[in-house]
Amino acid sequence: MNTSALLAIVFALGVVALSAVTALPEEDMESVSVALGLRAEGLILARCSVCHTADLITQQRLPRERWEATVDKMKHWGAEISQEEQILLVRYLSARYHPGAPDRLPPLEHEAGPAEPLRQEPALTGPLVGVAGRGSGIFEHNCQACHGQGGIGGVGPKLSKNPILKQEEHFWDTVLHGRGPMPAWGSILSEQDIADIHAWLLTR
Questions:
Q1: What is the distance between the alpha carbons of residues 111 and 101, in angstroms, rounded to a whole number?
Q2: Beta-carbon neighbour count of residue 45 at 10 Å?
Q3: Long-range contacts of range 156-160, CB-CB < 8 Å, 24 or more positions apart?
Q4: For 57, 74, 176, 200, which has the most beta carbons within 10 A of its beta carbon?
Q5: In sequence order, what E strands does the chain have?
Q6: What pLDDT is stored for residue 180 in this prediction?
Q7: Which residues contact 123 (CB under 8 A, 6 or more apart)?
Q8: In which region does residue 167 sit, left (phi positive, over 0), alpha (psi from -120 to 50) or beta (all else)?
Q9: pLDDT for the residue numbered 19
């Protein structure tokens, strides 16, 4: 085989290999479960919308490495997200809002159905009981940005000594499903988390 023919074969193989690499898509939504996708959407509303509208994120079409840098920057600037939540957000954003995604996407609920609240294994003894000692930290991480330190109020209403605390059904419905500008937290907080927050707020 002469040199020209060998070079031609090498070039052809290189083109095929390059095509295979460039054809690899961003992580698609099928790799992100429904529950995790809805939880990520809840995180965008609950964590990111504290500083800006969700549109500022969802209008972007970025590759994974850019989403990684963006989420890392948000966390550096003060976004209250854990390491697990940061990984989830990057997976979700790079799967849904990648460069090949259409300009307009249907709501995730339209694609996957409504979110269900996180649940944990039922307690071995009796009904769910909130633990105020845990509720303080959960509130600080998830609620304080809007409702103020100690629940004294801020962007969101004052929760300390708020009558809604005595209306447990109303309280739970608001936290799980949202109300007005407040996003739904049912896909982010477990029932135990909510019970702990409620128990802690009753002590304020």
A1: 15
A2: 18
A3: 156/182, 159/201, 159/204, 160/201, 160/204
A4: 200
A5: none
A6: 83
A7: 129
A8: beta
A9: 38
User: Measured between alpha carbons, how far is 99 from 25 in angstroms, rounded to an integer?
Assistant: 10
Count of other CB atoms within 10 angstroms of residue 132: 15
Low-confidence ranges of the chain (pLDDT < 50): 6-26, 110-116, 121-124
Residues 45 and 115: beta-carbon distance below 8 Å? no
CA distances from 116 to 36, 86, 109, 147, 185 (A): 11, 21, 11, 24, 10
Write down the pLDDT at residue 112. 44
The tens digit of pLDDT for each residue in 160-186 reads 999 999 999 999 999 998 888 888 888
User: Which two tokens mark 189?
Assistant: 């907080």
185 token code pair: 């937290």
**Tokens representing 20?**
């295979």
Taking the complete model, does pTM exceed 0.90, yes or no?
no
Among residues 30, 63, 185, the alpha carbon closest in space to that of 117 is found at 185
Residue 26 DSSP code: P
Instruction: Give the CA angle between residues 53, 92, 137 to the nearest 5°.
Output: 70
Positive or negative, the Cα torsion across 133, 134, 135, 139? positive
Q: Which residue is associated with the tokens 């300390």?
A: 160
CA distance 174 to 172: 5
C-alpha distance from residue 17 to each of 27, 140, 160 (Å) = 20, 51, 62
**What per-residue confidence (pLDDT) applies to 161?**
93
